Amino acid sequence: MAKSLIEVFKQTTYQVGGNGKRNLKVLLDSLEGVDDSLESDIYGKGQIIEDFQRKMADLLGKESAVFFPSGTMAQQIALRIWCDRKGVNKVAYHPLSHLEIHEEDGLKELHHIETFYLADSHRVIEFDDVLKLNEDVACILLELPQREIGGQLPSFETLEQISNYCRQKGIKLHLDGARLFEVLPFYQKTAAEVCSLFDSVYISFYKGIGGIAGAILAGEDSFTEESKVWKRRHGGDLISLYPYIISSDYYYEKRKDKFEQYYKEATELASLYNSCHDVFTVPQEIVSNMFHVHIKKPKDSVENVLIGVYEESNIGLTGYVKEVNENECSYEVSIGDLYESVPKEDLQKAFELLDEKLKNVN
Amino acid sequence: MAKSLIEVFKQTTYQVGGNGKRNLKVLLDSLEGVDDSLESDIYGKGQIIEDFQRKMADLLGKESAVFFPSGTMAQQIALRIWCDRKGVNKVAYHPLSHLEIHEEDGLKELHHIETFYLADSHRVIEFDDVLKLNEDVACILLELPQREIGGQLPSFETLEQISNYCRQKGIKLHLDGARLFEVLPFYQKTAAEVCSLFDSVYISFYKGIGGIAGAILAGEDSFTEESKVWKRRHGGDLISLYPYIISSDYYYEKRKDKFEQYYKEATELASLYNSCHDVFTVPQEIVSNMFHVHIKKPKDSVENVLIGVYEESNIGLTGYVKEVNENECSYEVSIGDLYESVPKEDLQKAFELLDEKLKNVN
Questions:
Q1: Phi, then psi, of B141 in degrees rounded to 5
Q2: Both B289 and B157 in a single domain?
Q3: Membrane spanning segments where (chains A, B) (predicted)?
Q4: Chain B residues close to A237, C-beta within 8 Å
């Protein structure tokens, strides 16, 4: 039987995306040399959790921060708090927000919050979309970058306009910053500078940071204190969260200064893709460590092409391809630690092969 | 300044309760010798999580099982599913149920489930309490043992009566089995035998098992599948839960055959307490590894007495004392691995000191 794309991908010597395998080594590396007498956090208290929360609050320029097991939990809670404060159970976000498509409608099923869309599903939210919003919402959520459309970004000026407008109108602005570190090189801003435009901020530790799991929710003291009550209600106030906290801190320190490099590498890789026949990236101009590759050929043909490329070049470009329509398919690329170890000549050769093979697909 | 009870307790050579410190060694021990190439579970899929869920389902005699980060999450979800199935948002449980007093009303705030009490707060739920329940509830939750009243237990015959009755009446029966392993020696039953009386079961891995965190929810396939949807809604479907799964399995294997011993040791320790002046245990007859110690003296006096005992005997009995009223105080004792290493003579001496010192409190 012919091998599948994922099988051939896993056998390549070099993979261009990500930080490597999600195996136990990720945890073990983060624990190397730790003092085994260090006491566990206990239900949100203790040195391990309090120190990390303080560090992240300072980094994000907020009064305080709370460590959560997941962003799903942290963000629903953020929106719930803002809705309760205003007495309005309505929020607005992008139609492809994580909350809308990946959380089994937790926001609606658990919190009974009504959602309104800003922008359409192919582009980012612009100031005009906010102006045209015809609903009294408690909160607007912006995701930077907008992951499901290749990690596109609004301009920083747009963010400032939206932020100013929301403050005037009494609408809270929440940042889905799952990939916040990934966009700082493009904006040429610090995390605190971006976060200053928002009332509440969530960041993740297993995207670009490459940790195991975990999230931080930051804001004013009264907000984070309230979030702890909801964290307990959700079942997220675990007796011990330290396996996630220690690994989050370890990988944050390991990668915090690498996002400029990832951004440049993503730009380089995207230009290789854009030089190929019937291939384009979304976005065209790269703004983070990620983008989507679109190929105007049928999914099955592209899979066969990629298998051929991997076998001849030993370079793995993607482990999957998703159908857009019968004549187009796509996949996501995120640059992490692995890219720098890929020999440039081999990579060049892989793209020459890709271009050539795609031309021969009719 | 005089030292506090907890300070002196921590300096004693031997502590009679628990499995030892909750420090990083607990995690590191569980990871010793693991294969670092083992792949992480990914959003509830993969060998690590699926194997453990299968193992626990078999142990509990249920079709399937789902690993959760916490029991708070698992149990709210269990009750929600049963309420949805029946179209009745009402459940009944003990007035000192974990859901009622330790979860910031998550069941009510997130799931809008109305709760009714069975029994009063000083005793366990008996069959008669169920018979007298004057509400059409979707589910009854029984906690075995009833932790907040010293870990008391109904008889096994009572459980059978309640189970039969609930099946006749179309009421689901859910087991809060946070300390299920702890009561099997008293009942002289297997976990599966106890669980066969219940439609859904939760067990915990950081009580007697002594793991880091984590819970299992088990039942029929249609129930556990539905629970996975709610797990995602709650924000508990983490990309990686393996730090908790591996440690849960490790400590389950390490301690699964020790609960008979803990039970006997708890019985022995309780009889030492009950031989002291103005001291009694709840329950009087020990039925698990735990009990509450009540001392009919003011809290401050008892703390001073205990400090004296610890300093003279080097044995730590408890790190805290809770006021019941101005002439009575209490604390909880749970027996784990530490008890067996306490020299019997020293322990005897500690109780002689305790008895003598309590007599001198007026």
A1: -105, 125
A2: no
A3: none
A4: 70, 72
